[in-house]
Amino acid sequence: MINRLSNRFLPSTKIGRSFRWNISSFVGEDSFIRGVHSAEVFAISLQTCKDIRFLQKLHASIFTHGLGDNIYFGSKILRFYSEFGGLCESRSVFAKINNMNISLWNFAIVGYHRTGQFAEALLLYQNLKSKGIGIDSSSATFSLKASTELGLLEIGKAIHVDTLKIGLNSDKFVGSSLVGLYSRFELIEAGLQAFYEIFDKDVVAYTSMITGCASFPEFHAQMAFRIAFDMHVEGLSANRVTLVSLFDVAGQLQALRKGQSLHCYAMRRGIDLSDEALQTGIVDMYARCGASHLAASMLRQMGRTYIASWNAMLSGLIQWGKGAEALTYFVNMEEAMILPDPITLSNIMAACADIGCSYLVKDIHGYLIRRNISLDLVVMTSLVDLYSECGKIIYARKLFDEILVRDTVLYNVILSGHLRYRKVGEAFRILRSMLEEGIDPNSATMISFLSAFSDLNDTRLGKWVHGFILKYDLNSNFDLCNHILHMYAKWGCIDTARYIFGSMKMKDLFSWTILMICYMECGHVDEALLLYQLMQQEGEKPDSTILITLVKAQMELGHLAKVKEIHSYIYRNLLMKDSATMNSIIIAYAKCGRLDIAETIFSSIGKETLSPWNTMMSAYGIHGNAEEVLKMFYEMQRKNISPDAMTFTSVLSACSHCGLVEEGLHIFKVLNTEHHVSPSDEHYNCMVDLLGRAGQLDQAYDLVKHSPLKDKTSALCALLGACKIHNNMELGEVIGERLLELDPHNPGIYSLVSNMYSEAYMWSKATTLRNKVRVKGLRKTPGFSLIKIDEYIVEHD
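RESULT FIELD:
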């Protein structure tokens, strides 16, 4: 019987001899002589084992034949128990094998890792150490991978220390696992250190580091290309995984040229581009770089297109604001009989919101039901988001309540919707439900709250959210720290913003910009300039926003030489094409008294857009050169450049200063009818000033009374000054009483009306007003001026 089984399963005599030799090496020569036929049968049966019940019976037979502590059979049974999910049985088998051979321990650790039982792998690693057997590359590598999968950074660090003690940190497998561990926890510097310690780096090690860098587009994405270059210098060729990570980096950085070079490299190397991951990576790169035509060409060239590639195409189009084109590609998908998946449907809903078709949310919902598409959590989340986007928050909440299984993303969507519509109380109730369900909030959850409360200027709730972030240890997230900083900066809490900025371990350009703008808005110009110097010491290069802020700071202080320095920096770094930066330079020179330099800059830049024209007109207005403002206005019309509200403010102000009443009235009348610009408060104030200067006080007062101005204080103040100039005390008294009614707590208005009475020798009324001011405790803020003496700014009241 046994011989027949042996002949059936071992057709070759040579193979049979080899197999018997392998068995004898595990069980020993004596065991082999006594029970070779039984061992052969058990070994063959183990190879054909397909379920845990058969394995349990076979294990019992092996045990009854006295082979229960055999290393060979124990390792095989251990592997199959791990694969079939028999955790208790696998533990029992391993415990019965009294073996100090590290190979068996490694076999068990690898088996547990491959079957997803990461905690058991780590437990074996701890036992391996405690028994003094020692560790090697295999046990350290898979234990590090288990720590990464379980999110146990401290255990991973402890294993790293173990490898350092015996010099395993230079092993390429251990080093790659360490890179993966530290990348998982956003400790990219530690990952780089582990990478550089690897003695003999291979493609796997390089790819691990490139993939880790690709996870940090804000800081280390460029480093991925440098590491890839080093790999090329070492004579190593990138594999599919390497290329997928590099395509991802190129897409993040929108580096089209580098992405095209990678594509050409893959074609030269003869790499099969029809691989799903690689094809999707190429399409995604082109789509994210804005080259949708190249992405579409890639889709057409592939003999087989994957749904993931179409999803990448749709996502890239939406990213570039081409929602309508994304919908067209969705129609093409259906025509090509490519079934959409949840990600496709989420992209389509995002496209509808992007092009303002959120009103179609019910149609989309109906489409999903009609096509009998499974509404999984991803699709349901997108639907809730789309209902929220189109203002149907009640429908969004109803759909949310019907979902039984929820996750953090779904909660973030419904919370963001309620906070967008200022339903703060309901948002807090949803947050409470989230915590009660055991779902932990993440950084996106808190960013929604911080954005809402900074806009609402609710310091109490904002501080509560900050405390909540500290309690749940979320303050290590970089984006979240920036939002906390922005919230306090927006409130004008300089000391708190400065403290948070100083405590941030990582800072980007946005962090520096937030604090610098905070200093500027709170009047701390000198501190803004000191912050810029510190930023330069840190090696951070300013962008247009920071340059504009710096120009404004130097302009406020009247530092002409510093403005020239910034202007030189702009030219050295070829930033002249940025219109906002150049406009700020024009205004700065004008305010520092160098209108001639402002004119030169204006003549040297492009004038196709409206922005530089408005800036130069404002510069002329600062110097009271009203004639030049009007000349520019008429030149704009000749060049068919449409004016906006800011243009008309400058023009009406120029008419006021030149006394061009008829022309000003004509421009004010055609402002809406011909140019489709709705008159603003500034326009009405300019007209009141124009009529007041011309002595047409009654007409000016009639304009104010019938205007749609929400706050008429500024216009009435200008008219009151005109009444004083033209000695119209009758109308001046009416306007003065009206002003005191509108703003009874403004000391400046009391002073203005009192001065008018004094100049008309109406001393009793002037004294009465001054007494009211004294009784109310109102004080007028004194004015001051700045005078530059050598390198110092001297302030005078």
